[in-house]
Amino acid sequence: MKQFNKLFLFTLLIAFTSISFSCKDGLDGMDGVDGVDGIDGTDGIDGNDGQDLTTAELIPLDASITPNFLKVDGAFSSITVTPILSSEDKLESTPEFVYGSMADGAGLLAESDGTFTLINNIEADYAIARIKLNADLKPMHGEYIINAFSTAYTAQCSGSLITPEEHGFGPLYLSGGEWGGSSKGVFATNPYKSADNADAAIMLPKLGQWSTENAVVIGKDAYPNLSVTFIGDDHSDNSVPSGQLGMYVGPRGNFDSGKLYGLKVTSAGITNEVDMIEGTEYEAEFVELEETEIGLLDAEAKAKGVMGFSRLEDVDWRRGSAANQREVYFAVTGRDKADLVGKGSRLGRIYKVVLNDTDPTAAAKITCLLDGDKVDGKADGFHSPDNILVTENYAYIQEDPNGYASINDDITGFAKLYQYNLATGELKTVLECDQTTAAAQGYGTTNSMWEITGMIDVTETVNNGENTFVLITQNHGWVPADGSAFTDPKANSVVNGSREEGSVLHIITGLER
After folding, report:
1. 428: which strand partners?
2. Backbone dihedral region of 137: left (phi > 0), alpha (psi from -120 to 50 degrees) or beta?
3. Residue at 27 is within a domain
4. Is 35 inside a domain boundary?
5. Would you tell me how many other CB atoms lie within 10 Å of the CB of residue 286?
6. Backbone phi and psi for residue 273, each to the nearest 5 degrees, phi listed first
7. Count of domains for the chain
8. Does 152 score more than 80 pLDDT?
9. CB atoms within 10 A of CB 23
10. CA distance 13 to 243
11. What is the pLDDT of residue 53?
12. How far is residue 431's CA from residue 455's CA, in Å, rounded to a whole number?
């Protein structure tokens, strides 16, 4: 595995590594419409391609062949949900590209020619894809810029895009190494790196090793000249809630000379996360952590009283004013184990952390906004909230059901997307995976619950006058009919080395921000 941790080399790679989508020999060495490689697209050995494709000549996928299996609630009947790419689709310009197993976190960049670049984690293939979209958000070209070898076969889960507009530096894509392999930490990827270099990945060692679900840099207006990065730790201990909220603080755009911290709840009487009652604000602080190795870091955090949650998953920050940007939200997906009862959430929670006005390391506040274990509470019926997107006015909460429906009769159906109003506290169901219809059409079964994930607000990036979001489903149980895998060998070349399950990428328009 090729990993480079020196800030100097990292900076050079970000500054100078790029890829052109209109170079004379085609896209990343792919020559012509038949996809035969030759050596570099110009050697003449294959001789049958006819032409190399520039950006203008790329052929968009007009529509996904996979039906829409997201059932919209009546209260949101004005929104439109459109699948634009799935694991069974073929892109004519890159016919060998496979939208792989368990797509997850994503980020979208606007290009000067009116097209868009989507960076997308492919979790169970331990890889990161780059997908070129046209001005109408139709996929045209796909390739892998990080492969399973470079991540040491470590799942790339939630991801976050850093841009100059929002963060004051970038572009740069952060992803979390969560499960499977040995690279449990934060990956940093140049969105424009060459796919020829997919077997080399960069990690940020100063941010520590965790069972990293995500790493998210909050907005540039929160603190002048600083970059504040939050890390979600999906540690799934069976007896002690061990998922911690990490925070790295360094100079703007610097991941090498800052310090690492963990969230500690300091209000009297709060020992475990379930001691915090829904709707009550508690005192908190960030304690400095010196270790970075996963075992030593976990032990130090516990010794210093860092709060443990039952699988702290996705993290996001509120858009808008500087004060808004100092509000951090995270999802705890929960864990139902006998030794965790009375300590950690079983069915999931949503938390808000309000940071100090001038110093991210100073005293903070934490509130449990939604408690899925509270009988007759507003979140009664939650089934493992896993992912979260926060806009200026709403939090969009995405479920990944963990099979706990039997412990609460109010849990019905399949994975849902919820809208939480940050001003009023109102919680609504936006849509639900319609696995019954899907199973009847041969897309998986009703026994393997799908996950809703990867939701991002791309309204300002697309800038077409419509509120526009990306949303992804991990379609567990949906495998190719021929017994093969929904895995691109350029992402993961190991036979039977992935979960083999399909993914669907959607565009949602008309949803409130």
Report:
1. 419
2. left
3. no
4. no
5. 25
6. -60, -35
7. 1
8. yes
9. 13
10. 32
11. 61
12. 13
Q: Examine residue 44 and state whether it is found in any structural domain, yes or no.
A: no
CATH label of the domain that carries residue 415: 2.120.10.30
Is 21 domain-assigned? no
Q: 186 burial class (0-12, 13-18, 19+ CB within 10 angstroms)? A: buried
Over residues 114-140, the mean pLDDT reads 98
Instruction: Return the structure tokens found at 431.
Output: 């849509």
CA-to-CA distance for 83 and 63, rounded, in angstroms? 8
**Which sign, positive or negative, has the C-alpha torsion 131, 132, 134, 140?**
negative
What are the residue ranges of helices labelled H in 271-395? 294-303, 322-325
Specify the higher pLDDT residue, 355 or 500. 355
Domain carrying residue 186: 56-509
Nearest to residue 209, comparing CAs of 160, 176, 251, 173? 176
User: Distance between CA 84 and CA 86 in Å, rounded?
Assistant: 7
**Is residue 251 reached through a cis peptide bond, with omega within 30 degrees of 0 on the bond before it?**
no
d(CA 282, CA 265): 7
| Cα 190 versus chain centre, distance | 16
> pTM value?
0.91
Two structure tokens written together for 269: 């009487």
Nearest Cα neighbor of 218 from 358, 289, 319, 314 is 319
Q: Report the first-to-last Cα separation within the chain, whole angstroms.
A: 41
> Residue 327 to residues 102, 221, 233, 456, 484: CA-CA distances in angstroms?
29, 12, 18, 17, 45
